Every structure is written in C-alpha cells, then in structure tokens.
# Entry
Amino acid sequence: MTIDMELVPKQKRAAGERCCEPVVYPDVQREDALRMAEVAKALGDPIRLQLVDVLRKHAGKVCVCELVPLFDISQPTLSHHLKKLRDAGIVDSERKGLWAYYYVIPDALKELSAWLS
Amino acid sequence: MTIDMELVPKQKRAAGERCCEPVVYPDVQREDALRMAEVAKALGDPIRLQLVDVLRKHAGKVCVCELVPLFDISQPTLSHHLKKLRDAGIVDSERKGLWAYYYVIPDALKELSAWLS
DNA sequence: GTTCCATATCGATGGTCATCTATATACATA
DNA sequence: TATGTATATAGATGACCATCGATATGGAAC
# Structure
C-alpha cells in the first residue's frame, strides 16, 4: 500500500523523517474480526473459560446437573453463562427429559485458535 | 475423582441411572482461567483484535499516528483501546519525542493460544 | 516564550454484563 | 392429578464498557 503523506506529521515530513515503517492494513478484515472477537469475548470470563475447558475434556455431552456444583455461582447464573457460550456458537445443547446436555461444537474455536498461533 | 451422590438426582438414583459420565474438574485452575480470560476479554473487541493483528504483522514498533487513520474511531477511543491491551499485558509502548510506538509483547498470547489448540 | 502537534486523560452518556432471587416451564414420579 | 425436580427465564441491581468532545500533558519548532 501507499502512504498518504497527509498522515505523516508535518513537522517531521519537512525534514524527510518518518515516524515509522509504512503501516500495514489488518489482514483480518472487519467481518473476521467481528466473528473472532465474539468468540474471544465469550471466553473472556473465567467461569465460561473453565466451562469450555470441562466440556472439551469430555468426549460426550455433559449434564448441567454435573456442572452446577463445580462452580461457586447460582444455577441461574450458570445457565446464563451457558447461554452466552451457545449464542457465541461455542457450545450447543440437547435435552433428554429433565436433563440438559452441553457439548463443545467441533471447530468452534478453530478460527480464533489459528489466528492466535 | 469420586462422585458425591447427593448431587445425583434422587429420582434417578433410586433406579441406579446416572445423568452422565462422572464429571471432570477443570484442568484449568481458577488462576489460570483468570489470566487467560483477561487476555481473551481484551481480544473480545473487534477493533482491539484488529489492532493486535496489525501490530503482530510488524517486526518493529508501530506509531500511533499510523494506527489512527486505520480505524473509524476517534483518537481518544483508540488510545483507550491501546490502554486496555496494555493493561491486559498484550502490548507495550515506548515514547520517542511526540510519538508513541506500540508493539505486541512476545509470548503474551502464548498461554491462551496453547489452551485453545 | 509562543505556537503547534501527538498522545493521554477527563467527564459524560447510553449500553451491556454478571449476579442474585423469584418464578416459569416442562418433564417425571407416585 | 398432585408433587417434586432440572433447567430456563424474568426482573432488578451495581459494576463495567465503548464512545465521544473537551482538555491536559509534554515535547518540538519557530
């Protein structure tokens, strides 16, 4: 890309000095950033991060009733966190009678993980 | 770990049925989760995620004056985002005269990246 | 010294968040 | 049908967030 000289500080431009190397536009476009930031935001709470950690450790699906006693929060608050994770597309759930089973959606963390590494 | 039978629903316990496999405690402990969630939270905004993307593309340090025109936000708002990233330990800055240079701290994203993959 | 510039901070605003208690929902048991 | 149980939703509260315009800071140029 070219440099818009209007963006280079005037006082230094006269002396031919630049503040730094030409800037590089983000490789990550706005839409990619929105998608990945949504996932990162959902992981930006320690309880949700631990929830995802527990769910990922299980091959199968985990009952909410097993998750509640792991955390020092009320059941509605846990339910709220699970909803946040579901809204972010990280987990999904399945109902069987009274019980609800949650699991991590395969590849849900793939894009963010790839960008991070 | 052992299962606390008090946590297993009573109606099903009588029949010997379990809701799911025994739960596994998070491998990620509270302190690890706090640390990683702090990083994830800082990346949980599309502008900050793009900022980190731009900074990572540069070997050296990038002047704030080059960053401002890349985003459709005011200079104070950009400054606020850079502060958030610095508070999260993701970036650091250096002043030279009027200009401020930001760069990604090596390995700042390492722990979260490793956990994600 | 005075003016100009890049960046950071301040103060306000409207929105979102995590959490709780209380309640609803929907299924199971007796 | 009546009662109990697992989960979700509703409503409230106090804290935090992204954003802005205005201003402060502190260095550079004239």
User: Anything to note?
Assistant: Strands of chain A lie at 62-63, 91-96, 99-104.
